Write the structure tokens for this entry.
Amino acid sequence: MSVYDDQKSALEEYEFRMGLERGRLAVTLDLVTDALVLVGQHGVYCQSARQPGKPTMDIQMIQQCLTGAKELIASVMTEIQRKKRELQ
């Protein structure tokens, strides 16, 4: 199933409130956040043998990548909003 079908209501809501680009980025940010939560839950069960109390290295790397992606998406949303304000 396409993300456009799967996330239809969220896309419609965010695109209406924020505009097409920022709305789609907002839905993307929600999806990345959901993925980060799932990876975090998985990390509870896959503990590192070398670092007790921490997730395995692959899960730590996935968390780092998803967190970085969230930061980049949020910065793009902020930049789009800033440019929009400048034009007004």
